[in-house]
Amino acid sequence: MGQNGWSVTYTTQSICTLKGSTVDLSCSYTYPSDYTVTTTFWFTKYDAVGPVSLSDDPDYKGRVTYRKDKGNGHTLMITDLRESDSATYKFRFTDQTGKWRYTGDPGVTLSVTGLQVKVTGGHQDKTLTCITTCTLTDNPTYIWYKNGHKVKENTSSLYSDYFSDADSYSYAVKGHDN
């Protein structure tokens, strides 16, 4: 919790999502009624002066949107996620003096993962497993394809089948079918 009426509360503290997707990080903040908040921003890095707003960070150029929500809510949207975006994101705000600043801890830990397939089993009877570097947050639905045709759609990251060398397999996460 904050100090003397200053605080930031994050909706979620940890998110794992797919490379190439879009994510929303949100929080709400409080401050004493005799102050006015003049600056709000999200950051992951510091420079010599202090935290660097993501909207000023060249690594995020054109990929971040800040949105003020109802009350004192604030949402950061990052598009076209990269694995290098994996970091802890924190929200910061400044009052009218420009001197008193408050940074919300612990922030939101974002992990961005790609998709890989692990193949196990015998010569023809094989199991395909979808591998990610973290557990995807939104309980995704996996879509498995055999020779370009959808063969299975469910929440299991495993798929077993009788394989011939002529067959090709692929998979996607629903909503990220490309």
UniProtKB/TrEMBL annotation:
Under which name does UniProt file this protein? Ig-like domain-containing protein
What species does this protein belong to? Hucho hucho
Q: Which residues form the Ig-like domain?
A: 106-178
Q: Which residues form a coiled coil?
A: none
InterPro entries, per the entry: Ig-like_dom, Ig-like_dom_sf, Ig-like_fold, Ig_CD22, Ig_sub
